[in-house]
């Protein structure tokens, strides 16, 4: 699970390339490991794509769901 790739692209970069290819500006995930992996992949690419937990995506879709409101922690 924690083994680093020795050849080819890193998996987090590969997955972010795939996500960026969709034109999405936000990627929602339901797994803490995927959140970290894809966020690192976006940063490694110099990408502005946001990687959010699905709960954060849902929160943003609710009335007054902007990240600057409420008491929830935002990444």
Polypeptide structure, described:
It is built from 3 helices and 2 strands; from the N terminus they run αβαβα. Helix 2 links the parallel strand 1 and strand 2. A two-stranded parallel ribbon has the order 1-2. Helix 1 crosses helix 2 (32-45). The mean pLDDT is 82. The chain has helices at residues 11-20, 32-45, 54-61, and strands spanning 26-29, 50-53. The protein is α+β, with helices and mostly antiparallel strands.
Question: Which key phrases capture this entry?
Answer:
two-stranded parallel ribbon, 75 residues, elongated
DSSP strand content: 5-15%
Helicity range of the residues?
40-55%
Q: How far do the termini sit from each other?
A: 24 Å
Question: How large is the radius of gyration?
Answer: 14 Å
Q: Could you tell me the mean pLDDT? A: 82
Q: H/E element string?
A: HEHEH
Q: Please, how many helices? A: 3
Q: Compute the number of strand runs.
A: 2
Task: Briefly note the structural class of the backbone.
Answer: alpha+beta
Largest sheet: 2 strands, parallel
Shape: elongated
């Amino acid at each position: 699970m924690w083994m680093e790739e020795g050849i080819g692209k890193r998996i987090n970069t590969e997955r972010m390339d795939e996500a960026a290819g969709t034109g999405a500006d936000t990627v929602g995930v339901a797994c803490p490991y995927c959140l970290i992996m894809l966020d690192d992949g976006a940063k490694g690419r110099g990408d502005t794509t946001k990687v959010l937990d699905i709960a954060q995506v849902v929160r943003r879709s609710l009335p007054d769901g902007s990240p600057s409101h409420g008491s929830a922690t935002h990444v």
